[in-house]
Each structure stands twice: as structure tokens, then as C-alpha cells.
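Why do we care about 3D structure at all? Because function follows from shape, and shape follows, mostly, from sequence. That is the central idea of this module. The next example makes it concrete: a single protein chain, its amino acid sequence, and then its structure expressed as C-alpha cells.
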Amino acid sequence: MSIQAITFKQVGNVVHMKYKQLCDFMIKHKLMVFVEYRQVHQMRGGVKQYYPSSRYDGKYIINGACGKRDDNNNVVPDQLLDSRIVDVMKELLNENLPEISVG
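And the structure:
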């Protein structure tokens, strides 16, 4: 099986979670850990736009070669997820579903 880098949003769409829910779930199940917030910026329409970027670490986190810049003009890599996380997430979600009795 090949490994592909996919976005948090793509994983969220597959498992029907918003970004915050997805991150909270992954942290709760020790699939990743929060490292820090970094203030980054990018140029849009000739204007610098600043915003905080959450940084994570874990087995399924992939740091991209490209990214935004911080105040020291260092590149803060974009973070993606290893596509294998989808199967792990689905398995964990199935384990956490309540049992439904029929009859």
C-alpha cells in the first residue's frame, strides 16, 4: 500500500468531522500530540495576512516541503496526514459506537 499525503479537511470529510473535532479525537486517541501555536503569515493581494497555526506531531503527521513564513522569515511547513489514518480513524469510530439492540 502506498502512502499519500492528504489534508486534515479530506480526512474530516471521510469520517464526517470538522477540523476541531478531528484534532480533538486524534489527540484523545493518541494519534497525534499538540506541540505549539506558531504565528505565520502569507502574502495575499500584496498584503501580509497573519494567523496562528497549530503544530502537531505524531506517527501520521507529514510535514510538507512548502509552508507559510513566521516573523523570522523561516518556513513553517504545511502539515498533512498520512492517508493510512483514514482506516485507523474508521476502526476507532466503529469501536466507539454504542451497541444498538434490536428486538
